[in-house]
Amino acid sequence: MVRPRKDRLVAFEPEVSYFKPRGIPMIELAEVCLTVDEREAIRLADQLGLSQEEAGRRMGVSRATFGRIIQRARRTVADALISGKAIRIDGGNYRIVMDSRRFQCAACSHQWEEPPGTGRPSACPLCSSEDFFRTVPRSLAPTRADAKRSDTQRRS
Ligand SMILES: [Zn+2]
Fold first, then answer.
1. Model-level pTM greater than 0.90?
2. Residue 113 lies in a domain
3. pLDDT tens digit sequence for 49-93
4. At CA 87, angle to CA 3 and CA 156, rounded to 5?
5. Cβ(61)–Cβ(8) under 8 Å?
6. Ligand 1 center to residue 38 CA distance, Å?
7. 123 CA distance to ligand 1 centroid (A)?
8. 118 CA distance to ligand 1 centroid (A)?
9. Residues 42 and 67 grouped into a single domain
10. Domain housing 125
């Protein structure tokens, strides 16, 4: 019996999903595959510089599991850079969660979102009241069916 793997949480979804070395015809081009959760691991550990513990927490996995994800991700990217291969970013076990923060004004009932990590807003953007509170983020609301996406593609 195969134990289902838990989805890794991914808070970043860029448009670009393919990288190709210049000057090599597609027909001769070798390709490696980086999963979406592996790219997220690179973003958290190598772009943002988070510890493996913190990065694992953000992806909903243990430090040890994060260590395995990032190791595999780095090896794949290194293979592409050193051997001149294309990188396809696709698949993996993941769920997109945009962790923006949602607020509601107590004075005028206006609701708005703030990106993560920008601190508490000073006032309601509509009526400038300082009487506002935090509500459930949209990404956690049950109505957002498209927030959950998973793909059980396996690689050897
Ligand atoms: Zn207001």
1. no
2. yes
3. 999 999 999 899 999 999 999 999 999 999 999 999 999 999 998
4. 30
5. yes
6. 41
7. 8
8. 19
9. yes
10. 101-143
